[in-house]
Design a protein that fits this description.
Blueprint: H1 3-23, E1 26-28, E2 31-33, H2 35-48, H3 50-66, H4 74-92, H5 95-122, H6 128-156
Antiparallel strand pairs: 1-2
Helix pairs in contact: 1-2, 1-3, 2-3, 2-4, 2-5, 2-6, 3-4, 4-5, 5-6
Length: 163
């Protein structure tokens, strides 16, 4: 994929993730659950790979924070989940493992990264188990949506040049 097409596809994923944050979210414990972010992470990981998926997750988190739609916790969870989803898909070529990577990367590893992140940047002294349930709810629901979409798009052969 040439650089122009890659950047354009990344911009479309960022737009979907940012717009989706306004339309589809629900409260989940201490954080807001944005399943569209996790769905985009899985779709980007499968179509573009781990590097671009991490960049997309960072940009969505940055835009959500600038627009007042998210918290700083969008960064540790979203970026780790996107990387693990892309890495697992790249190694196994299985879309289901990309979704599992997103759920584990964001839901478990991201929630552990959120503890010092919240302590340093947000002044919160909450422990890891405080973030784990809300991160898991959001990441599992979004990863399932992303896996479903990628599976249907691949089957319909709509992205034959990308996947």
């Amino acid at each position: 994929m040439n650089r122009t097409r890659l950047l354009t596809t990344m911009a479309v994923f960022v737009a979907i993730g940012t717009l989706g944050a306004q339309l589809l979210w629900f409260p989940a414990g201490v954080a807001k659950a944005y399943p569209v972010q996790h769905a985009v992470n899985v779709m980007a990981a499968v179509t573009l790979g781990p590097g671009p998926a991490v960049g997309i997750a960072f940009m969505i988190g940055l835009l959500r924070n600038m627009l007042g739609l998210g918290t700083l916790l969008a960064f540790p969870g979203g970026m780790v989940g996107a990387f693990l989803a892309g890495y697992l898909y790249k190694k196994t070529n299985k879309k289901a493992l990309a979704a599992v990577g997103e759920a584990i990367g964001t839901g478990i590893i991201g929630s552990l990264f959120a503890v010092p992140f919240a302590r340093i940047l947000m002044g919160s002294s909450a422990g890891a188990f405080f973030f784990l349930p809300s991160f898991l709810v959001s990441s599992i629901s979004g990863a399932f949506i992303g896996w479903f979409v990628v599976s249907k798009v691949k089957r319909a052969n709509l992205l034959a040049n990308h996947i």
